[in-house]
Backbone:
């Protein structure tokens, strides 16, 4: 585009260039020597630079392009002039057929002045719209077309154009189940039975059918109830025996905790008899010195052992090697005879073998039963889900002297939030956790900058 403009500009500067505007003079286009001004300074940019001649020239070029479709100097005489021979060779005016019911001739309708004003009179061709020729995803479409051509050459059908697999329609609607049939069966919308009215073929094609979930997802991880009911002894006004049973249960829990603490203390305790004294230390030192004096030179011992081993190793003769081969063959034959004899003996042991097989199957069944029982029992206990073990919550029990017999004066025990949190851990929904330990913040470090020194 820039090259075409440059070519037009060069052509316009030629001596034979014709102008259409009368206001532009040839003297202005071929002006003489301009005033020399220092253009390095910014104040002279807009003061001593006159671009009116350039603008007039470009406007004249644009006018020629609009009216004649190009520069007048480049046009031929036939394009610029025509021979006016009058109305002799004018084509006859075509008559318009009269409308029905109206006699006479009718002139051709003239265009409206509004349409004439809005009509494009410029001879400059409309620039090509590049965006109109762009196709979205053209690269992808070319790749798909190329792949389709390859499949067609191989005689294969693309997956997109393959026929869909048919699914058997089980609940096909009939005339008796139509909604406008008064004799159809009565449907109870509040009943327990759910009537499937959707077509499985439609559900498969529209992908609206529910996804089949894995069986383990619907299975409960624990059979422990969400809210456990406390023992009767935990009431605000319990029975005497129920309260004593609850106290005994709490007592057993505390005794168990105390035994575990005592066990840890016993393991960490230090026995005074095992401590080292001055006599035992002196005795150990003396024993070490005696052992050092009684030892021989290890190098001499090693040399003697090596010489003895070399003397014992001797090369075997051919007779000895032949005898070894015969003994090896004889041993293999003996083992084969024993194996064959053992197989024959097993024929007479069928009863004992059957009995052992029945006992093995019985033990296997017992292990399977025990394994299932353990799996069922695990559903009532908390599993190890993290690095911490589950610790049961302390029993909420009140002593005999703390019982008031009235709900208003009852002293509260435990926390509802903690109880719910422990219930989630016991039902294997969350792992046992500990309270996060907050780290202390770092101390603020003061630094004296250079600017501070300058002020002081």
Residues:
């Amino acid at each position: 585009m820039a090259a075409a403009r440059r070519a037009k500009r060069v052509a316009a500067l030629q001596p034979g260039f014709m102008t259409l505007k009368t206001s532009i003079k040839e003297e202005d286009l071929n002006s003489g020597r301009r005033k020399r001004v220092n253009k390095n300074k910014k104040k002279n940019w807009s003061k001593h630079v006159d671009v009116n001649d350039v603008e007039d020239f470009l406007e004249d070029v644009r006018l020629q392009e609009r009216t004649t479709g190009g520069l007048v100097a480049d046009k031929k005489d036939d394009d610029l002039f025509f021979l006016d021979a009058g109305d002799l060779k004018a084509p006859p005016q075509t008559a318009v057929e009269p409308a029905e019911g109206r006699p006479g001739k009718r002139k051709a309708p003239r265009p409206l002045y509004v349409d004439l004003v809005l009509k494009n009179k410029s001879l400059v061709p409309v620039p090509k719209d590049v965006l109109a020729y762009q196709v979205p995803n053209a690269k992808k479409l070319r790749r798909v077309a190329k792949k389709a051509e390859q499949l067609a050459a191989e005689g294969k059908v693309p997956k997109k154009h393959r026929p869909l697999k048919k699914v058997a329609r089980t609940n096909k609607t009939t005339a008796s189940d139509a909604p406008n049939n008064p004799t159809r069966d009565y449907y109870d919308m509040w009943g327990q039975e759910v009537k499937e009215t959707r077509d499985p073929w439609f559900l498969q094609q529209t992908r609206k059918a529910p996804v089949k979930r894995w069986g383990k997802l619907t299975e409960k991880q624990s059979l422990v109830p969400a809210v456990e009911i406390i023992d009767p002894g935990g009431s605000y006004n319990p029975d005497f025996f129920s309260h004593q049973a609850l106290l005994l249960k709490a007592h057993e829990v505390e005794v168990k905790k105390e035994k575990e603490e005592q066990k840890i203390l016993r393991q960490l305790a230090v026995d005074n008899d095992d401590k080292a004294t001055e006599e035992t230390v002196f005795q150990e030192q003396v024993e070490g010195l005696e052992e050092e004096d009684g030892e021989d030179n290890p190098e001499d011992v090693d040399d003697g052992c090596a010489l003895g081993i070399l003397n014992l190793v001797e090369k075997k003769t051919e007779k000895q090697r032949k005898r070894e081969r015969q003994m090896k063959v004889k041993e293999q034959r003996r083992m084969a005879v024993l194996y064959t004899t053992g197989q024959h003996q097993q024929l007479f042991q069928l009863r004992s073998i059957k009995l052992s097989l029945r006992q093995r199957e019985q033990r296997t069944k017992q292990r399977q039963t025990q394994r299932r029982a353990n799996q069922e029992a695990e559903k009532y206990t908390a599993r190890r889900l993290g690095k911490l073990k589950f610790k049961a919550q302390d029993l909420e029990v009140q002593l005999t002297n703390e019982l008031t017999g009235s709900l208003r004066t009852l002293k509260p025990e435990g926390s509802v939030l903690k109880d719910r949190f422990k219930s989630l851990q016991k039902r294997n929904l969350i792992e046992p956790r500990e309270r996060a330990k907050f780290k202390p913040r770092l101390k603020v470090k003061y630094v004296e900058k250079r600017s501070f020194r300058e002020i002081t």
In short: The first helix runs from residue 2 to 12. The chain has a mean pLDDT of 79.
